[in-house]
């Protein structure tokens, strides 16, 4: 028996001999999803995207930045 989390949608990619075309119910669901996605585009959404991009950029280089800063502090303290 397959167990799944109740909050997760059930996805099946098998057609089991049925038509592989999209059903009207699937098209309706897709249409509703696209309408809700269109409503999200605004200034706040753009700001959120920029904040997420900055977070990804900083997170990917955090260790490198800390190592370079420590190196520069160490070199500066030796020179002075």
Automatic annotation (TrEMBL):
Bias kind Polar residues: ranges: 12-23
Domain of life, source organism: Bacteria
Stretches for region Disordered: 1-23
Transmembrane segments: 58-79
Keywords: Membrane, Transmembrane, Transmembrane helix
Protein name as catalogued: Uncharacterized protein
